[in-house]
Amino acid sequence: MKSTFSAAVVVALLAVSAVAAAADVERAKQIVAGKCFMCHGMDGESASRSYPRLAGQHSEYVAKQLADFKSGRRKGDTMNDMVTDLTPEDMKALAAYFEAKKIGPQKVDDPDLAAVGRYIFLKGNQYSQIPACASCHGEKGLGTPQLPRLAGQQASYTASQLKLFNNRDRNNDNAVMHSIASKLTELEMKAVAEYISGLD
Predict the structure, then answer these.
(1) Which of 50, 154, 168, 193 has the most crowded CB, counting CB atoms within 10 A?
(2) How buried is 17 (Cβ within 10 angstroms: 0-12 exposed, 13-18 middle, 19+ buried)?
(3) Which CATH architecture has domain 111-197?
(4) % of the chain with per-residue pLDDT over 90
(5) SS3 string of 43-93?
(6) CA 115 – CA 136 distance, rounded (Å)
(7) pTM for this structure?
(8) pLDDT digit string, tens, across residues 156-178
(9) Can you give the residue ranges of every domain in the chain?
């Protein structure tokens, strides 16, 4: 009798959880359709190479970036305006929505440049004290909940973020990334970004 009651409680809790998750997905779709799709697409695929692909990105990372945009900790005129009315629950729902979307590699435009980027990504540059990107982001560029997935990201977006880290114009998550980006040449930034774009 007791085990039957416990099983019923578990089933009821799972049903409530499923309904809540469906509501979160629906809310996220409404927000994406009203705000995000113009730049990032309905599925996080990005309408331009200037905007990041959000599909497959870690939900914890996306939620933190949205919160940083809202607080002003991360600057980005358009994004700072876009998030003003988002609640923490909205941010979590959006983050989970985009994480669930599938992502694949980009077509590498310059294989020779990507080969230079591969070396730096996997081995770093001992002559300028640059550590391997893979030491934090993983050999496949999949990142962690705290560090972004880089695999398949738009090359021009990645290169622009490295420049922002270098100039301290990107003012969140900057402690480690500034020390790395400040040692990268423009060629190295573009090479790493090109290599990353082709990772799956």
Answers:
(1) 193
(2) exposed
(3) Orthogonal Bundle (1.10)
(4) 84
(5) CCCCCCCCCCCCCCCCHHHHHHHHHHHHHCCCCCHHHHHHCCCCCHHHHHH
(6) 20
(7) 0.86
(8) 999 999 999 999 999 898 889 99
(9) 2-99, 111-197
Mean pLDDT (whole number) for 35-56: 94
Q: Dihedral through CA 80, CA 195, CA 103, CA 160, nearest 10? A: 10
Q: What's the CATH number for 2-99?
A: 1.10.760.10
d(CA 105, CA 126) in angstroms, rounded, equals 28
- The 8-class DSSP code of residue 124 comes to -
Through-space distance between the first and last CA atoms of the chain, rounded to whole angstroms: 51
Share of the chain above pLDDT 70, in %: 88
Q: Report d(CA 187, CA 165) in Å as an integer.
A: 16
The whole-number pLDDT of residue 171 equals 87
